[in-house]
Specification:
With 532 residues, the chain is mainly alpha-helical. Helices cover 67% and strands 0% of the residues. Helix 9 (168-198) packs antiparallel against helix 16 (314-346). The longest helix is centred in the first third of the chain and has 38 residues, at 57-94. The protein is globular, with a radius of gyration of 23 Å. It starts with a helix and ends with a helix. 54% of the residues are buried.
Length: 532
């Protein structure tokens, strides 16, 4: 094939009408507003969604598997998450359209795959949202019992709903930027405390070093414990892919999306691997507080570590920090969940009312419905906060593996169609690292983990745990088959996949070209640096 032909085809200019639409502040397809800045998306990728799922849930993972299992779980799931984000970066930079990978499933594979991916993705955010409400109401009730848990929930539910409906995406992006900075600052402070603590710098404690790796030991329950940790870790990592959902509401996706995707590498290393290492270093896996945390205050490894260092009142500091992360996580969960519902409502995969936006670009019905699903957290009134958290985590874990596996499969189909239709890899604005090896590794790992994540329920057989772990697994093919039969869809051939629709130019393209962010060749070392 000739270079000129490939280059022309890969960079086909959009028609005049579409060019004008690219510079509108309201997306013409989805109706949302393009108001997120590059720094908003970058910080969302680096520290967005991080909340009690990591800070509190890591305690359950640590007690189930031990410090070595925690590191293994975070490391393996981190490699899988990295593969997913490389694939997603390539797809989303080229197609920053509404619906993200849900829409791409319809275009690259089969329209029936889109609702299966979309509804499983919404289930993930339903679970995350319920967990965050569960954590924040438990903390507030721990501080004061004058208001019942359901009362705290109603107050918070109304406040978050008002924020999402009144101020719009620009204020959401700005709030997430500053809240993410606070989260990063809090983690840095804990890491510094951990180094001082284990080195004997806290008066009256002495150096503990790697004491908890020897007693109670690196593994709490052998391979069974490792398998349990994988379920927790999949929930902790859920959300790294949310930058693809936000791409439609980003002013300059061609610059913002690749930069945000690259931030995920540092998120994996600093936040997840760093957290796993220091949690296991400063908190024993057999701590009574982790195992029997009670229903009033969810116990975090950070709380246990600070109290073991001699500061009993440290629980209030950690709870305050967790409360701040909850504000960010709940806000983000409502945002991502509502945008997922918005697209599905616009594409006949959900009730049409959920696909409506007002003139400001706010999807009001989808936001109200998503926030209402947070009421699932009220199960902690009868079961206790810790048990409620475990139920919801196990329920959503398999959905994460199914959605991630689907993203990787969509990427494989895209690359196959890209090659068959005569395009070159060099024409992609962002090319995934180590394709196809990394992509196939991620796909295989997600399939494997989706099947074995409930392995701990087999011996001895736990019927309730088995149902909790696997009930959502058959939901994926059921949705796919029902939609396929009802709407008579078909699996696209590679040569008929649409590779042109969905591209758009940045709102601030002229500024980006002037500053060298676009259109300027970069040396090889800078390209390598940008990969991370």
């Amino acid at each position: 094939m000739s270079i000129s032909k490939d280059s022309d085809r890969a960079n086909i200019p959009l028609d005049d009408g579409t060019d004008l639409a690219d510079f509108h502040s309201i997306d013409p397809e989805s109706g949302v507003k393009r108001g997120l800045k590059t720094r908003h998306l970058s910080m969302m990728a680096l520290a967005g969604i991080i909340g009690p799922g990591l800070l509190v849930g890591a305690g359950g993972a640590l007690s189930s598997g031990g410090p070595a299992s925690l590191l293994i779980g975070f490391g393996v799931i981190g490699m899988i998450a990295f593969s997913v984000m490389q694939s997603l970066g390539e797809l989303t930079t080229l197609y920053p359209s509404g619906g993200a990978f849900t829409q791409l499933a319809s275009r690259m594979v089969d329209p029936a795959l889109a609702p299966a991916v979309g509804w499983n993705y919404f289930i993930i955010w339903l679970a995350v949202l319920a967990n965050e409400y569960n954590a924040v109401t438990s903390i507030l009730y721990f501080w004061s019992e004058k208001v019942p848990i359901w009362g705290y929930f109603l107050i918070l539910w109304s406040a978050f709903l008002a924020f999402q409906l009144i101020w719009g995406v620009e204020t959401f992006g700005e709030s997430e930027f500053w809240l993410a900075l606070i989260k990063l600052g809090g983690l840095v402070a804990f890491y510094l405390f951990s180094i001082i603590y284990v080195s004997g710098g806290v008066p009256g404690t002495g150096a503990i070093g790697f004491r908890y790796w020897h007693n109670p030991g690196p593994f709490a329950d052998g391979f069974k414990g490792v398998a349990k940790v994988f379920v927790f870790c999949s929930t902790f990592y859920a959300g790294v892919e949310s930058v693809a959902v936000a791409a439609t509401e980003t002013k300059n996706p061609r610059v913002a999306v690749p930069l945000a995707i690259r931030q995920v590498f540092w998120r994996i290393v600093f936040i997840y691997m760093g957290g796993a290492f220091f949690f296991g270093l400063t908190c024993p896996s057999n701590s009574e507080q982790l195992i029997n945390g009670g229903s009033r205050a969810l116990q975090s490894p950070m709380t246990v570590a600070i109290q073991n260092a001699g500061w009993e009142g440290g629980v209030h500091l950690i709870n305050a920090f967790i409360l701040v992360t909850c504000v960010s996580a709940i806000n983000s969960s409502i945002y991502v969940g509502s945008r997922t519902l918005l697209f599905m409502g616009q594409q006949r995969m959900a009730p049409a009312i959920l696909g409506w936006t007002d003139k400001r670009g706010i999807p009001i019905p989808a936001i109200i419905f998503t926030n209402a699903c947070g009421a699932l957290s009220l199960m902690n009134i009868s079961t206790g906060a810790s048990e409620a958290y475990s139920y919801i985590v196990n329920l959503s874990g398999v959905s994460t593996f199914l959605v991630w596996g689907s993203i990787l499969f969509i990427h494989i189909r895209f690359r196959q169609a890209w090659e068959i239709q005569g395009y070159r890899v060099e024409d992609l604005p962002f090319a995934a690292l180590w394709y196809p090896w990394l992509t196939y590794f991620g796909l295989g790992a997600n399939i494997f983990l989706a099947l074995v994540q409930g392995w701990s329920n087999f011996a001895p057989f736990d019927a309730g745990g088995f149902v909790d772990a696997y009930i959502l697994l058959p939901l994926f093919p059921v949705i796919y088959c029902v939609y396929k039969i009802v709407f008579k869809t078909r699996f696209w051939r590679k040569d008929e996949i649409d590779l042109q629709s969905g591209r758009r130019r940045d709102l601030e393209e002229a500024k980006e070209i002037a500053t060298g962010e676009l259109g300027v060749p970069q040396p090889w070392w800078r390209q390598l640096l940008k990969s991370f």
